[in-house]
Amino acid sequence: SQTIHQWPATLVQPVGSPLSLECTVEGTSNPNLYWYRQAAGRGLQLLFYSVGIGQISSEVPQNLSASRPQDRQFILSSKKLLLSDSGFYLCAWNVGGLYNEQFFGPGTRLTVL
Amino acid sequence: TQLLEQSPQFLSIQEGENLTVYCNSSSVFSSLQWYRQEPGEGPVLLVTVVTGGEVKKLKRLTFQFGDARKDSSLHITAAQPGDTGLYLCAGDSGNTGKLIFGQGTTLQVKP
After folding, report:
1. Would an 8 Å CB–CB cutoff place A41 in contact with chain B?
2. Tell me: the pLDDT tens digits for B40-83?
3. Do B40 and A107 touch (CB under 8 A)?
4. Nearest-angstrom CA–CA distance, A8 and A41
5. Terminus of chain A with fewer CB atoms < 10 Å: N or C?
6. B83, B84, B85, B65: which is closest to B24 by C-alpha?
7. What residues pair up with B76 in beta bridges, in sequence order?
8. Which of B41, B21, B40, B28 is nearest to B104 (CA)?
9. Chain A neighbors of B65, CB-CB under 8 A
């Protein structure tokens, strides 16, 4: 069966520090991978998605970047964090298919102070 | 820009009551999904509806897709405290590989 992991689970970082969040998927090959950000109790904002190694599409211009160095690994990064980068970051995967159903990781709670 | 409007945003009810959550758009979707999310966790897929007018049931939850495939509803019968959580609808336009999410409905069921 497929599983998705995210780490760290929680992170507190000062403004201006770098960021690296990691997402890995097990049990599937060539998945589509997604990074979302969620404000408290609200919907999901798509940040990046990737259909393959080295292929990244950015949805919202911002202080973040994403990379996919391996088939089942997706990394979210920043060189200098802003206060507005605080939030709940979710990674998701699917293998395309007819209905584009997505499966989410447990999330990373990021607080920028 | 495609948008999905969910209503209500917040709902606090007593155990045993019924409720309906709505998800509306001016855009047509090839399918629509409903997710449930508990605090501090990722959303979990509940159901996908794909045909206009389709009705799907999952125990006490009934999901309906509008005839024009622009809207959907989630009805919960005899709500229980375990139903508490954030309910999200998400639409797939069918050709972008991306989902459009509604803003969510926070449901609290009091014992």
Report:
1. yes
2. 999 999 999 999 999 999 999 999 999 999 999 999 999 999 99
3. yes
4. 21
5. N
6. B65
7. B19, B61
8. B21
9. none
